[in-house]
Amino acid sequence: MIEEAVNVLVYDIGGLEAQSTLGETVHFFIYDSVKILLLLYFMIAFIGVFRTFISPSRIRDWMTTQTHGLSYVAASLLGILTPFCSCSSIPIFMSFIKAGVPLGPSFSFLVTSPLINEYLVVLMVGFFGLRITGMYILFGMVLGVSAGMLAGRLNLEKYIVEDIRGDRDLDEKKYQGVGERISYGMEEASSIVRKLWMWVLLGVGVGAVIHGYVPEEMIHNVLERTGVFSVPFATVVGVPIYANCSAVVPVAVVLFQKGVPLGTALAFMMATAALSLPEAVILRRVMKLPLIAVFFTMVAAGIMLIGYLFNFIQ
C-alpha cells in the first residue's frame, strides 16, 4: 500500500519517469523514509511498553551480584533494551560506576547499547532479513560480553576518573494499568522518532544518491585497492563519523547492494554507531586516556573480527 501511494506521488503527480535515474532516486528516498519511520514508531512503542515491566534499579543490583559471567550478559541485554547512541549511553554507564557496578559489566553495557538497539534491529530486519540480523545481534552481544570480561580481568578501575560529574540515576516510575504503559510506549516512540527523523532522512538521502548515481564500478575499484584490508579500512573511516544508526543503516544497505561485501558494510555501520570522536571527548569526563584507548582498541578489533566473519559466511 505504501509503495503504491509513493508510485502515484512520484510518477503520476510528480511526473517523473519510472525508469529514469532521478525517478528511481526520488522513489527510493520517499518510500524508504516512510517505511523506516513507521517501523521505528511502532517497534519503539512496543519495546517501550515492554520496558515498563522492568525495574532498572533491580537490574542494576542484579548485575552487581551475579557471578560466572551472568552480570556481563545482563549488562549486554540491558544495552539492547536501551535506545541510545554511543554518546547517550555514557550517562547510564556513569550511573553504573557511581552505583558500584564493576567496570567489566559497565563496559559490556557501554559497548552493546549503541551497537544493538530496537530501532537498529527494526531497520536491519527490514533491509537484511532475520538471518543476518540474528547473527548481528549474537556477534554484537559476544563483543559486548568479551570486552567487558577483558576489561574486568585487566583491573582497569584505576583509570576511572574519581569525581564523575553530571551523572543521573536510572528512572524509576510506577505504572498504573495497561493504558498508562501503552501511553508511555507511544510517548517514548514519538519522542525518539522526533529526535531521529532528520537522521533517517539524511541516511536514506545519502543511500538514495549512492543507489542512483554512484556506479558500481567505482565502489568495486575502491574495494579492489583495499583488498583484504577493506574491513579495517571501513572501520577506520567510520570512526570519525558521528551519526545515529538510523542514518547509517540505509547507507550500509546501499553499499551492500552495490557489491560491497556484507561484513565490510556492517563494519562501517558498527564503527559509526559504537565509536566516534565526540564519544571519546565525553568519555574523557569518565575515563583517563589509557582506558579510553583500551576501549576504542577492543571495540575496533571486535568490529573488524565481526566484519571478517560476515564476509566469510556471506
Commentary on this structure:
The protein is mostly helical. The chain has one domain (2-313). Helices cover 76% and strands 0% of the residues. It contains 15 helices and no strands. The chain has helices at residues 2-13, 21-51, 56-65, 70-80, 86-98, 103-115, 118-128, 130-153, 177-213, 216-226, 230-238, 245-257, 262-274, 277-283, 289-313. 41% of the residues are buried.
How is this fold's topology laid out?
Layout lengths: L1 H12 L7 H31 L4 H10 L4 H11 L5 H13 L4 H13 L2 H11 L1 H24 L23 H37 L2 H11 L3 H9 L6 H13 L4 H13 L2 H7 L5 H25 L1
Offer a few descriptive terms:
314 residues, mainly alpha, globular
What form results from the Cα inertia axes?
Answer: globular
From the alpha carbons, calculate the radius of gyration and give it in angstroms: 20 Å
Tell me about the biggest sheet? none
Give helix % range.
over 70%
How many individual β-strands?
Answer: 0
Q: Spell out the helices and strands N to C.
A: HHHHHHHHHHHHHHH
- Mean of all residue-level pLDDT scores: 78
- Low-confidence spans: none
Question: Care to give the gist of this entry?
Answer:
The protein is mostly helical and 314 residues long.
